[in-house]
Design brief:
Blueprint (H helix, E strand, L loop, with lengths): L1 H13 L1 H33 L9 E6 L19 H9 L5 E9 L4 E4 L4 E4 L1 E4 L3 H4 L3 E5 L4 H5 L4 E5 H8 L9 E4 L2 E10 L6 E4 H7 L8 E6 L5 H19 L9 E5 H44 L1 H9 L4 H37 L13 H28 L2 H6 L2
Parallel strand pairs: 5-10, 7-9
Antiparallel strand pairs: 1-11, 1-12, 2-5, 2-11, 3-4, 3-8, 6-9, 8-9
């Protein structure tokens, strides 16, 4: 084996310029593949860390207005959601439905104040799962819990921007008292969100402030075990049918209730990102192809130049597989050696791009993981073997007598 690699080394060093030029083409192809895969991975990472990915296993349901007549009811009837609807939907045991909760948004604007400043906003009464369904990032303290709801506590969770106005340092807001008209509330948590500034309070407390009205603003339905867009659509249709039976409207009436199917939207986006990854691989492989063709060409030239040598080896008893192995391994060495140069340079560039795009939201950590590196390594080995296979087969067709005549 040592002699084999010594022969390969001598062969490559004999044609340094030609080997280097061919290797540059291979390195460039791998470099572009790594950079493109890193960028595609950065886009996927940005999506998975965004609000679209968080809380993607939820259906959000709002009341609507019918567009079809149904069982004696005229079109244009207003469909409202109530407290008991969440229990009825849960008791329907729809496949895929894991949990049903509700939230109520109080329509009046309130001034939340301290002794030094105030902010304006509105109360939203929620259950604990709103932290996930509303895509909130809890920064300090805690969120609304079941004890708050059971005891109708006057506690709230506020946006970090409001906490900065009232307390300068959001971390110091937790445990502080604020006033909302004649009522006092204790701040138990501070959250961050791209576009929400609600003051979250226990659902039961919101009920009390809303004169115990039974109506709710929306239903939040957590779903599980969904692995495709079609399954997500099925759950949506089943939930609509359940509400249609409860509220007496046509199950085909899309306007009876409005449903935001986040898991279906998530699956659609994931499908698009998967296509992006495949496109990147295809573009990268075609870029590599020019380098692989170059390696194959250099091996054809190498075989032609060494025809006499191959003839002598065949004449003194060298087996065809030994010659085949040497030429293929020589091709793999060229491809792998320069390919790894491209991998290293690509990783360095991706690290630089991660720093350059650190403040951008559309891309996050454009790097490759170990699985991608292994895949690229396998591609390199296979490509190198294929690049040397045809020249090696040509070498085996050379008859020893004819090869010895070649100068």
């Amino acid at each position: 084996m040592i002699d084999l690699f010594r022969e390969i080394s001598q062969s490559l060093s004999h044609n340094k310029l030609r080997t280097a030029l061919t290797g540059v083409a291979v390195a460039w192809g791998i470099f572009m593949l790594i950079v493109l895969l890193g960028m595609a991975g950065g886009i996927v990472n940005a999506f998975n860390s965004s609000g679209m990915a968080a809380g993607s296993n939820y259906l959000t349901v709002w009341g609507g207005r019918t567009e079809k007549a149904y069982q004696g009811y005229k079109e244009g009837r207003r469909i409202r959601l109530y407290d008991d609807d969440q229990q009825k939907v849960a008791e329907a045991h729809t496949p895929g439905v894991a949990n049903v909760s509700a939230s109520v948004s109080l329509s009046s604007t309130v001034n939340i104040s301290t002794s030094s400043d105030y902010v304006s906003g509105s109360f939203t009464g929620v259950y604990p799962d709103a932290l996930t369904s509303d895509n909130l990032k809890l920064l300090h303290g805690r969120f609304i819990n079941q004890s708050d709801i059971a005891q109708k506590r006057k506690v709230l969770v506020m946006n970090k921007n409001n906490a900065e106005v009232l307390f300068k340092d959001p971390a110091k807001a937790v445990g502080q008292q604020v006033s909302a008209g004649s009522l006092g509330f204790t701040v138990v948590g501070v959250y961050d969100a791209d576009w929400r500034s609600n003051f979250y309070i226990p659902f039961s407390t919101a009920r009390m402030l809303n004169s115990d009205s039974r109506s709710v603003s929306q239903l939040n339905i957590e779903i599980e075990g969904i692995n495709s867009e079609e399954e997500g659509q099925r759950v949506e249709d089943d939930v609509r049918a359940t509400l249609a039976q409860i509220k007496q409207f046509d199950p085909q009436d899309q306007s009876g209730v409005w449903i935001w199917n986040r898991i279906r939207q998530y699956m659609q986006t994931q499908s698009g990102l998967s296509i992006l990854s495949w496109v990147v691989w295809i573009i990268g492989l075609f870029t590599m192809l020019s380098g692989i063709v170059g390696v194959s060409n250099i091996m054809f030239v190498s075989v032609k130049e060494r025809t006499h040598e191959i003839g002598i080896r065949r004449a003194i008893g060298a087996k065809p597989r030994a010659i085949l192995r040497q030429i293929i391994l020589e091709s793999v060495v060229i491809t792998t050696m320069f390919g790894y140069i491209g991998i290293v340079l690509g990783i360095i560039v991706n690290q630089g791009l991660a720093v350059a795009f650190a403040e951008q939201e559309w891309i996050k950590d454009p790097s490759i993981d170990i699985s991608i590196a292994i895949q690229v390594t396998v591609v390199l080995i296979i490509a190198g073997a294929l690049a040397g296979l045809f020249p090696a087969l040509k070498a085996l067709k050379v008859k020893p007598v004819e090869a010895l005549r070649t100068e």
